[in-house]
Amino acid sequence: MARLLRTALLFAGVLAPLAARAQMTLPAPAPMDAASLFRTQCGTCHTLDPAEPIRQGPPLRGVIGRKAGSVPGFHYSPGFATAGFTWDAKKLDAWLTDPQAVIPGAVMLYHQRDAAKRQAIIAFLETQH
């Protein structure tokens, strides 16, 4: 019985500080690195620099304020011919959520359900003039 009691006290002495440490608050996660997020989420199909060879999607530098479907030399899917809007943060958010809902028949398979990631990508694009 004494041996069991000593073992229990030993574990209590070891576990109590660990439990107290576990109760400490963890540091807040680092903010998303929007440039890295853009590279990993969008960079496979899009460049920023219009001087680079065009990939599957048009270059995105200056997309905010640009008329949809207007990059010279890029072959857009037919829905862009009748899009009739200019890209802004709200339209980009809808686009990144569900491209086909914004432009039916659009040939963009990517979508981002995480609102924080969409906002980070959009905020990054807003800095790319």
Features:
Cytochrome Bc1 Complex, Chain D, domain 2, 129 residues, single chain, mainly alpha, 5 helices
Q: Would you write up a description of this structure?
A:
- With 129 residues, this protein is mainly α.
- The chain has 5 helices and no strands.
- It has a single domain, classed as Orthogonal Bundle (Cytochrome Bc1 Complex, Chain D, domain 2), CATH 1.10.760.
- It has helices spanning 2-22, 34-41, 89-97, 99-102, 115-126.
- Helix 2 (34-41) packs across helix 5 and helix 3 packs across helix 5 (115-126).
- The longest helix has 21 residues, at 2-22.
- The mean pLDDT is 86.
What is the top-level CATH class? Mainly Alpha
Using only CA atoms, what is the Rg? 25 Å
Q: Separation of termini?
A: 76 Å
* Dominant shape: elongated
Biggest β-sheet description: none
User: Regions with pLDDT < 50 over 5+ consecutive residues?
Assistant: none
Tell me the number of helical segments per DSSP (H or I, 4 or more residues long): 5
Please tell me the CATH architecture by its name. Orthogonal Bundle
> Would you give the CATH topology?
Cytochrome Bc1 Complex, Chain D, domain 2
State the order of secondary-structure elements, H for helix, E for strand: HHHHH
